[in-house]
Amino acid sequence: MKSRLMVIIVIISFILLSANALAAVDEHGNLQIKNDYISIVVNQDQKNASRFAVDVTGGDPMHDNDDGKPLIYGRPKPWTSYTTIKVDDTNYVFGGKTDKRAGKLGKYGKQVKAPYITEQGAIETVYKYGDITVIQSLSFVKSNTTGLPDTAQIKYKVKNSGDKLHKIGLRIMLDTMLGNNDGAPFRIGSNALKTDKMYTKDKLPIFWQAFDKLDDAQVIAQGTVKGNQVTAPDKLYVADWGSLADGVWSFDYNPGEEFMRKGEFQLDSALALFWEPKSLPPGESTTYVTNYGLGGITTVPGLLSLGVSSPAEVVLDKQNKSFPVVAYIQNTAEIEAKEVATELNLPEGLTLAGDEAKEKSLGNLKPGSTSQVVWQVEPKEEAKQELEYSVDVTAENTDDNSVSRSVTVIGPPKLKLSLSGPKKLELENRMLEPNPFEVTAKVANRGASTAYDPTVSIILPPGLKLADGEKKIKYLGYLEPEEEVDVPWMVESVGMEGELPYAVEMEAINTENESGMEFLHVPKLEPAAYLQTDNQDIKVGDYLKVRFKVANIEKLYKVAAELKYNQNRLDLIYASRGTLFVQNNELLSWEQDLNRNKGTISLTGNTRKEEDVLSDTVGILYFKVKRSGSANISFKDLLITDESGQEINYDQERLSFIIDN
To answer: This protein's superkingdom (predicted)?
Structure first.
């Protein structure tokens, strides 16, 4: 159960990130979350269930042309984009079955949970494919170039719930669309792509962008495929939508072929990110994350319109040593621009990576055409501040132009974890107290930048288990600098004595793992069968309630007992089964036979299956007190066995008391 503090922290953090985010069902029946910049919608129909789309709401505050435009095609109901889960050699399409072209040839799994809004404001959907459980999670994150929450985070959490190893792969296919333009080039590095192209992991850019005209862009789209917010795919393909729609995993890929929709005569671009199959052991999980939304370009119009893009923040760490500065140059003049050249001017704190040249030549640029260049830039160790650089563009026969843009260099996230819980359990009335008990991990980010997708897992030894309803892994979404969160679990002892170790592990996409361990002393439990009453002073005429209980019995399956009571002082008026023989509101095997003349009652019951350790109520006896004096209720005969019929050892204790007038 989450503490009140954790809930408040998570809610406040989400509100700050989402910028007035709202959740609702839209006019077409899609589940929707939206903020001031973009909206994410998920199909709730039986067909195409869980497929999603992204639209612009307010978009770029400095740019009115993008309001209300689509980023991923999905009107009125998403169906053209889909995700493939490869389990061993079988390709499954995530979500509900389809009668349309996209993913029609794939296999499908079983819905575990329909699309719903989480406490953190994400839309999640859960499906199962044999042993493999997959959670699709869609939420808002900050763009790495705009610094605003105008980007959709697309996340898949995959768990192997079986008892054998499986090979798991993932493909995300996005039917990209820029407003009304379905054939705008993908701008990757120094290339503007209008034909099929594939990038391997070592050639991936941090981000790609797409727009139609630099001087009058309707929508500037951006996909972030590498860096501290996401898990880099093994391959990135750009191709026509028809080929990717038809091929559930492999598809008709033709390098250099235009984005003409397969089988038709219309430009229709799409992309696919591939994470190749890797082994996933039993009980283990893996997460895939990519971001898609709006891109940030600082633009200055002119005869040579100039736009520059780069990350708004750069984390100074060993993993990501450089970042790209991309310049787009569009010739808006009616004549050809001659000998176009660009120059990057860096401040102290930034330097060109490797053998990068400060100046780059573009040659001649035809009227209306756009070209682009990219520099790889490295921050220096001491550069933890906001830095401004500029890009100049010149030509022999047109006016020059210049753009300045800022980048903030910050340190990496640093996760810290402390673990707290009881040092020992006590024995009270033959039972462990407290049990279950709370274990809490205090998670903190002591670094200078956000930790993305932190997960916290608890590891328990034999003898300890999670209480019913608890989850081993808890997902925090993100952790801002200096943010602290308490992550609690309810844990239960199942009867093993000794010093038991338990641990918590924390990991995130963009930082090193942390762990903590503590020990819990569990005293020895003595197996017993006994009789118990809540009555303190027992008088003639009272009604007496007596519980027949067992405590700390291992592998209990059957109980057969004959109880004797003083029939001259007590009148047994009623007996009922205990909670030991009730499971999930179902009454299990139970028999009783009362002999008032002899003052005995026989009770027999079976559980459904053996439990490791049981402490529960076998039956309840209700007496009317008739006469004063000493009285007792005892076991005349008692046999407790496991499922094979083997007798289980235990101590037994009768109930004795004095009856007053």
So the answer is: Bacteria
